## 1
Amino acid sequence: MILDLNSFITREQPYWDELSALLRNYDENGGYRPALEEAKRFYYLYQRTSADLVKLNTFAGEVETTRYLERLVARAYSRLHESGGEKIPLKPLYWLTRTFPSTFRRHWKAFVISFTGFIAGASFGAGALAVDYDLKDQFIPPQFPHLREKPSKRVEREEKQDFDAFQGRHAFSSELMTHNTKVTALLMVSGFLWGIFTLTLLFSNGQILGFVIYDYLRDGQGEFLTAWLLPHGSIEIPAILLGGQAGLMIAHAMFGWGTNLRLRQRFARIRGDLVTLIAGAALLLIWAGIVESFLSQYHAPPFYPWKIGFGLVQLCGLVLYLSLSGRKKPQPQLTN
Amino acid sequence: MLGKTTALEVQTAEGVSFKVPIASPFSRCLALAIDIAVIIGLTILATTVINILQTIAETVPQIGRILIDFGTGAAIILQFVIATFYGIITEWLWSGQTLGKRIFRLRVIDERGLSLSFKQILIRNIFRLLDMLPSTFYLIGGTSCLLTPKCQRTGDLAAGTLVIRESEVSAPSYNELLEKEENSFSTMPHLEARLRHRTSPDEARIALDAITRRNELQPESRLLLFSQLAKHFREISEFPDEITVGLSDEQYIRNVVDTIFRKVSI
């Protein structure tokens, strides 16, 4: 049976035009939420147009109108079906106290591997320097020229300098925040290359820290080092490790061990957790950037104990927050 | 390009299936170039505004120096925010489109044909860091686009998205097409009924396509196509010479289409 195309189009076109106008309105107003009646009408128009498409395909097979209806149905379909119904979290307190720490704990194994990779790098860096101290100049990256200097000389120089609370601090803080956020995000996304690059980055970052720690301890500048690194490092390093954790979750999804799900499904399962971890890491890095600019670089010996104390409190707070916050209280067991 | 899929085929719960054309790497490159230009433009604009404010701040006694330093810090943050959030915000506000994608009529959608979630937008934009490597040459993203069947960069694979071509197709009007000329076949309804009976849906579709797309054809191809179609339909129809004489091949097919598509209602 062949469709009376002309009268079919004449009859149905007003519905298609109405649907098209609604879609255009939704496209132009991103956050627009239709009222119930409008949503019902939209759904009716979508169903009617879908039915028209089926009719046209079955009885007429006319290319141009079919293509038009396909586009219309595709756009309406996409509008009607949210992929998972996820919304931007509008409960920041809930997110901070529950979502973020519980997401971290749910993937604790990835964090342990991330931490191990970093510590392995640090141990290697310190070990390499212990074996051959001349390696120092070769291994310190060019972007850290102050680390090439003999630690005691640097300490002497830094401790003599006046602390200028504002000169260049805002710019330095901003640079640190943006740079560290990029590095952390890179640690995460490089998990896509089966985690090899993530582990390499973690190892190399740990290696630099290992060099520095060994170098300063060897020169008897342990107190300066702790007072310099702990205030911001107690937040910055865990944040970077969170990036590594997210990267290793991606790597796990790439390998697909222990699951029959397809790659798309494996990624869909971890997508929300990745966003949570990277957002959490970014927040921590913003704080670390501020601390590094305004506190860590203030090298006055009388303040060392305060700085170390601050760093320790911060580290303990972070550990407690990530391990305890948002834990559900155990339900009391019912007894007869 | 290895085994490219040119369209995403979606089957809805209502049993309707439709195809959405997938964007080519070339059109995506052009859209990206526009977006990069916009990001550079916005960054220059923001930096210029901050520079002007810093110049004004210089004149403020005591806190001028602090304000200048604050401005430098703000500029660094702004550059980062513009580069990172331009894609995220525009794709979120414009349902999967950046300015470049809007100009080239491209749109990011969920790979099942659904609308994008904010998480997907965030993930695909964070993965840009990987896709643009080495440096900003987009070698990883470009290679991934060329190697994956649906032309997806790593960000698309991780976020479960793909970029489609959005052509604004308007419903064609058949009034003008079918009612312009008088159909001489209508004087013989019994022969028209026989023609409809003998014409298969595929033959009807070919004839209708030929009419609707005739203006897209080269003159020689158009003549050849309608001559072959008319020859075929003359063989299966039995209209006498008195109503077909003087009819061009194209008019003959127009009459055939009119007979098939307009006269029978379901």
## 2
Amino acid sequence: MNLAVLGAGSVGRSVVELAGEYGHTVTAIADSGGATVAPDGVDAERILDRKDETGTVGDGDLDEVLAAEYDVLVEATPTTLGDAEPGFSHVRAALERDRDVVLANKGPVAERYGDLRGLERKSAGDVLFEATVGGAIPVLSTISDFGPSQVTAARGVLNGTANFILTRMATEGLDYEHVLAEAQDLGVAEADPTFDVDGTDAALKCVILANVLSDDATEYSLDDADVEGIQSVPGSALELAAEDGRTVRLIGEATAAGVRVAPRLVPENGTLAVTGTRNIVQLETRHAGRLNVSGRGAGGPETATAVLADVGRLER
Amino acid sequence: MGDERATSQEDDSDSGAEDEGDASADDGFSEERTDGGVQSYTVRLELVDEPGELLRTLEPIAENGGNLLSIFHERGNLTPRGHVPVEVDIECPPDRFEDIVDALRDAGVNVIQAGAERYSEEVSVLLAGHIIDTDLSDSLNRIEKCSGASVVDFSLTSPEGTDDVTSARLRLAVESGRTDDALSTVRSIAGEKDLSVVEPLTEGGPA
């Protein structure tokens, strides 16, 4: 398959690096500063070196990429809230040309799910977005295999940064600010970790899950989610939890009836108490009990793996 | 620091004495069948530690046809609110028991547990914020009053002294099916007092 990649952050870069291994060709790439179109395939190494040196992947512009020859548009620009632009317009451009779209950008699926599905219905192209929930963990494809109506609820730990902070606070007896600074030094937390620690990122993922679980019956966006972050959980609260064999995790819950993200008490050695940056999703199924999928929920190569798995699904 | 009431309430797994026909003396829920249509009940109370308080409590029992079997007065063991836990075994016809409990409550006695009224669920909740400055005993009283819950365990830490952020862990014994009520009471009190709440994830319950 020929891929047009939008966004050259950690996910976009990894898609470019790994595409060849999966038997695909990147024929166009754009970032916020420029673009390159190469019908025979871009030279991954050269283009990423160029990005490192000059800050952009080429001299061309985005419109050339959107108009280029490709089978699948990979949308990996940063997630934006509200109107989910410019990601949403990129998706629209591809669908109007009857091309398939694979999203790593959560914005269009979390904030404009109805609009997105509407465009998809009118197009010969399909939209897949495994990479938007749980990084490398096959959450959406598992739900799709079971059938959304067979899954009554999804819950779990969907933000590695928040989980890392809570884990370190509990094991080291340190306070939030201290551990956050440490996480930033380690590169686990971004310079601006707001969306990770205030629950927004986990909520976006849960909103996407709720949209999928409701099977297009109800549309959810971030505004519908009940969201609470971890900033106000003191270290002493984690100590008290530990005395009682429990710990605190930022748990997201999604059902066809809504979305809630909040720090919650869970058994210390329970399934959902994953440690470090690990993520887990627990699916409640109608006839098969509980299903747990866990793994790396973020990172360039991890998320690119989910993107390329979607590309593989489109190919079949 | 931390305060804990060691009581048999924490163990609700074998509380169904009437089902098992085995009413042991330390079982806070015993309800033993005896001959002549009279049953024995255990009532768990919390009394203010003041002279005459115990006697005042026992009057409504006798006045309503209850026969006092035993009193276990744990005077050395104060509850987190500084009350004295008392366990009273009484005997009465089943139809009088509710009257006795009502009479106790009307007399202002804090009845924690009474016979068949089972606290069958238990939940833990964390609170953080200015817990002490925002009238802790009011918070605890309201949780018990509004939601059919009993605070069976309460621990508090305040690393920087009481002016700073304090954390607390509450273990609540809740009447069957009322966990959501109890949690929503905690939530609304916390909202009012600007405390943050970490609720339990009730596994298996509605997500």
## 3
Amino acid sequence: MKLNIAIAAFGIAGLVGAAHAQDPNLARNLAATCANCHGTNGKSLGGMESLAGEPKEKLLQKLADYRSGDKPATIMHQIVVGYTDEQLDLITTWFAAQK
Amino acid sequence: MLNRRDFLKSAAVAAAGTGALPGFIGHAMATTTKARHHVVIVGGGYGGATAAKYLRMWGNGAVDVTLIERNTTFVSCPISNLVIGGVKRIEDITISYDNLKSKWGVKLITDEATAIDVDKKTVTTAKHGTIAWDRLVLSPGIDLLPGRIGGLEGKEDRIPHAWKAGPQTVLLRKQLEAMPDGGVFAMHIPRAPYRCPPGPYERACLVANYLREAKPKSKVLVLDANGEIQSKKALFTQAFERYGALLEYVPNSALQSVDADTLTAELEFDSIKADVLNVIPPMRAGNIAATTGLPLINDAWVDVDWLTLEAKGMPGVHVLGDALFPAPAMPKSGHMANQHAKVAAAAILNLFEGLPPNPTPVVMNTCYSFVDARNVIHVASVHQFDSAKKQPMPVAGAGGVSAMANDLEGKAALAWARNIWADMLA
């Protein structure tokens, strides 16, 4: 488990350059707040979009479109604005890395 | 006492059988010489089942997890109003705990937890003796207080609450089916805070939806102890109006007593004779939390540290879900209990590793409510930890409700159920 945490921490630091003290599993924890609707680790059983393995830029663009209203939504336009840009960056990076 | 070696063996065999936890067996073998951590979870609902799965998943099988649950299967409260309304069957909301055992290596004990000893770090069960833990997770939901309403105690077979899904859900449905056309379905909503703020109003809609088609001369009478609708007020007001004379909403209607023989509900200034009487009594944190010396607010809800979900002044005892005294604007919902569980699971694994808990946890909530068999309204919120206030605070400008009831969200609500049930139990 220590090894996994170390890898996760290195991965996050390497990807977003977040060198300040934050939880080594912050990205995983944030992404888990999406799992209720989008499935454990972003693997949806259907009816909601799967997020696992989706390219980060594609996910970030969708989120930006929800925020701007360019992409019509029933609920995501209200949820996306609850997260900071840094958090959305961590979340999309994490989902993109899921197989 | 739980035998850890047997537990490990069965968990390893289970993992080998499914191949679900690559690396798990290696871990188990490598760590058998040093003490393994053991988490005992009481309550297998939205909070406890999620905690069990995520402790095993995020811990890569290195932490032993025992789940004590009195029921042999999980029955979901969310979607249970569709069973009462005749849209779904009880089988549709009933799910096995088998995957938690076979896929995730959770030790499941079907039993009642009766006492906890924080100093000795044990939990006592009715039939399985005393079980030791390194950390305890209590996810006991709510227990109802029928004694607070005169004449109600011991009458739940005649006057069902159906506020815990299962036999009570089926009973209320049967009573509705047996009710004559022209009958009165009266329901009582207790003062907030109670489990699932929009739930009673959804139930009123779904009963009215059934009666409109099956027994159109009947009436739904909603007796609310509160002064107004507690969730999605404008949207439920619209929904109620669409049922016309079939549904009457009466605020400030605290129930004083009931007569179970005549199905009469006594209010302060009124007396109502019903054909089906559905009383949701006042409630508080589940008994194991409320009677074992945990810090309670208003003698009802558990006060917690929001970074770890540990009960205040009780390190090592984590409490989740409806049993909590909520942070501002945080609902008592299954969705929120699932989110609590992930914060607690992450904190527990950190603490076992000698790391501090995540200093910036986030939780969010989505509640879908059916206003008829197809159309749904939602309320959503996102809560970020505020380090000055030491609790999660709703993000201003985020979240909100549906523009109007719609069938797109009817599909979303069922997809939500499918995915969150899997997030807990698959």
